[in-house]
């Protein structure tokens, strides 16, 4: 019976240790007198996140509950205490004024076992800063002008594809088509590859893009565990990206580099810059190049296609806004000899207002994260955000705060008229982040979105389908906001 006694004692020890650990962990915010809701063992405050609700819905709930009570509140992601920022001045301090203390996002990456995760988005400050300086020239206005004709050509293919479908179907579901449009653009502009997914929905590039966003490698709690315990995650060799996705990008990059170097090909695209950096004195390894290429693909694909889809959805429900935007597009083209040039695109202020209002209502990344590099005393308070603490800035909650945007559920592009914009602090609109660690590719993403919308609105009128939802809800898992509902449009060709 000694073995039974040993087992019982071991179970008692483990249970006692676990209980003590959880009790200590879940006392973090109480001991610091920070507003919070009681955690639930073992979930903390995230029970249901990733299964029945998106993380942004949780942070929005906390924001609405505690805003005005304190500059930040506490919550627990499993056992990890996280600070949710509630005060807009504190948001500004974290992103801009005191950026030096919040220069890392605190996300998990594993360069050894999962090299595609080693990229600009995930890197901590010491690796991020020099790489950002090297990559920024790729997204200058001059580079955008160079890529503009390629994107316009793909926009024409999008228009042709939609036209062929309107001859065949009474209603169209555009999510897949817009995803293929984005895939073709990124494949061409980033890698110099003619994907042709608009005409071949089963192309390898398109299948990879589906896997990146719709087939995550891990369960939600595995991802949270790795984000909570970086060292243990790397020790256990936790990966975030599927093997087939990683293998695809390694093969693509190696073949592209070999082809271009062997034949001395220069295209002035993203890959061209990466190759030049690789061959410089402080160059990049193949693993590092693949990581940046993967990021470019992942960041640019779903965000732009979702922005176009959500814009068309709102325009279908708001025909007056759609008509006003279409008139601006036509008038701008007429002022430029009926040509759609880069300068024409930049001469469409109402188009920018429409896109910004879409991104306000449906921000692609609904929460931003930063990590405190040192203990940080919150200005004007006695509260401290301790070194190593992750802070969450609830973008979606800020964008739907009636104090900043009255009647936030109403779609109103006039919120972004020049007169209204100057009244608001920049950090009240965070669709692309803010400060030094904002989205490096925002020019490219906006260009891709603008060209897609111009190609479609010049040629078609978008009306609600028979069962178009009046309000969208979102899948609980994808990083980028993805609607639960199927959005179908009645699309009418505009005769010229």
Pattern of helices and strands: HHHEEHHHEHHHHHHHHHHEEEEHHHEE
Q: Mean of the pLDDT scores? A: 88
Give the overall shape, derived from the CA principal axes. globular
Percent of residues in β-strands: 5-15%
Q: How many β strands by DSSP? A: 9
Distance between the termini: 91 Å
Structural class per helix/strand content?
Answer: alpha+beta
Count of DSSP-assigned helices? 19
Description:
By secondary structure, this protein is of the alpha+beta class. Helix content is 51%, strand content 7%. The protein has helices spanning 2-25, 28-31, 55-66, 88-97, 125-135, 141-166, 175-191, 204-214, 220-228, 230-235, 243-263, 270-278, 286-317, 319-335, 342-346, 349-361, 395-399, 418-421, 442-457, and strands at 72-77, 80-85, 172-173, 368-371, 376-377, 384-385, 390-393, 460-464, 488-493.
């Amino acid at each position: 019976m000694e073995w039974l006694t040993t087992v019982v004692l071991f179970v008692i020890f483990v249970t006692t240790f676990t209980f003590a650990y959880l009790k200590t962990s879940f006392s973090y915010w109480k001991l610091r007198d920070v507003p919070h809701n009681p955690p639930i063992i073992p979930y903390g405050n995230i029970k249901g996140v990733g299964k029945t609700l998106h993380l942004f819905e949780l942070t929005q709930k906390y924001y609405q509950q505690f805003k005005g009570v304190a500059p930040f509140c506490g919550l627990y992601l499993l056992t990890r205490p996280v600070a949710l920022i509630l005060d807009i001045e504190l948001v500004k301090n974290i992103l801009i004024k005191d950026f030096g203390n919040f220069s890392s996002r605190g996300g998990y990456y594993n360069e050894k076992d999962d090299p595609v995760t080693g990229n600009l988005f995930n890197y901590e400050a010491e690796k991020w800063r020099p790489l950002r300086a090297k990559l920024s020239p790729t997204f200058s206005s001059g580079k955008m002008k160079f890529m503009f004709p390629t994107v316009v050509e793909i926009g024409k293919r999008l228009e042709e594809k939609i036209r062929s479908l309107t001859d065949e179907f009474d209603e169209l579901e555009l999510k897949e088509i817009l995803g293929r449009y984005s895939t073709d653009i990124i494949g061409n502009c980033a890698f110099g590859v003619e994907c042709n997914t608009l005409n071949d929905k089963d192309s390898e590039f398109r299948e990879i893009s589906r896997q990146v966003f719709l087939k995550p490698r891990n369960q939600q709690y595995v991802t949270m565990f790795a984000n909570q315990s970086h060292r243990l995650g790397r020790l256990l060799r936790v990966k975030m990206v599927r093997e087939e996705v990683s293998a695809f990008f390694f093969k693509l990059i190696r073949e592209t580099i070999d082809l271009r170097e062997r034949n001395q090909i220069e295209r002035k695209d993203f890959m061209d810059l990466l190759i030049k950096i690789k061959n410089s004195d402080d160059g990049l390894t193949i693993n590092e190049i693949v990581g940046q290429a993967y990021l470019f693909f992942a960041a640019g694909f779903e965000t732009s296609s979702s922005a176009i889809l959500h814009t068309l959805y709102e325009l279908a429900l708001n025909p007056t806004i759609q008509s006003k935007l279409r008139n601006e597009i036509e008038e701008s083209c007429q002022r430029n000899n009926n040509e759609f040039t880069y300068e024409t695109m930049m001469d469409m202020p109402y188009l920018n207002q429409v896109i910004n209002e879409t991104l306000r209502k449906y921000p692609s990344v609904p929460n931003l994260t930063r990590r405190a590099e040192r203990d940080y005393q919150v200005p004007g308070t006695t509260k401290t955000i301790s070194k190593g603490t992750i802070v969450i800035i609830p973008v979606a909650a800020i964008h739907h705060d009636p104090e900043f945007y009255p009647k936030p559920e109403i779609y109103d592009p006039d919120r972004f008229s020049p007169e209204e914009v100057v009244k608001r602090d920049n950090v009240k609109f965070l669709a692309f982040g803010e400060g030094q660690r904002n989205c490096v590719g925002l020019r490219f993403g906006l260009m891709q979105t603008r060209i897609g919308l111009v190609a479609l609105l010049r040629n078609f009128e978008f009306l609600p389908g028979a069962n178009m939802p009046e309000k969208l809800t979102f899948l609980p898992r994808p990083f980028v906001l993805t609607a639960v509902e199927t959005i179908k449009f009645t699309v009418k060709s505009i005769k010229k």
